[in-house]
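Quick question: what would this complex look like in 3D?
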Amino acid sequence: ETGVTQSPTHLIKTRGQQVTLRCSSQSGHNTVSWYQQALGQGPQFIFQYYREEENGRGNFPPRFSGLQFPNYSSELNVNALELDDSALYLCASSMDSLGNEQFFGPGTRLTVL
Amino acid sequence: QKEVEQNSGPLSVPEGAIASLNCTYSDRGSQSFFWYRQYSGKSPELIMSIYSNGDKEDGRFTAQLNKASQYVSLLIRDSQPSDSATYLCAVGGSNYKLTFGKGTLLTVNP
């Protein structure tokens, strides 16, 4: 059984650029949730994808968008990057969208200069 | 009012002692409760889940849930230096998302 994987590990972008982060869910999981974790804070929910549909969204602006593919892998896209977008971006997969355990990938550290 | 609150710590215990970590939450509709361990520079690792009132034990870890008091705790028995990490409490409601506290930094001193 393979765990959750994310790419890239680290990324440096400049303000105004766009970025795409990728996530492969754990085998047998059909739900992917994305979180943003700023330094010294707990993860903040961005959105969740279940069977290729957005299943809920946190308090993030529309420039944060995502996709889920038929194999349940997912992408997080952020447009018009701002300095405050610098954070650890975490992907978590779960068996379904009903509140079961979520397992995190290693994360992508994004730095916006 | 913050949705999930934890003492930020640091909580310092000697090796072999019991570490007690606490969490309160505001949404009475919450249905699922989780403890994650996060080492510095790493992602959160699920260590305990609990869904009903009472205690749940797994090895050296015991999670306790009291829905009436809106309180969740994690006890770590026989604490080891390798337990030194930030412990995140996460709460799931009738919707889809987990709401996390800021985490408690635990240091176990040899």
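Answer marked as accepted. The CA atoms of residues 46 and 59 of chain A lie 7 Å apart.
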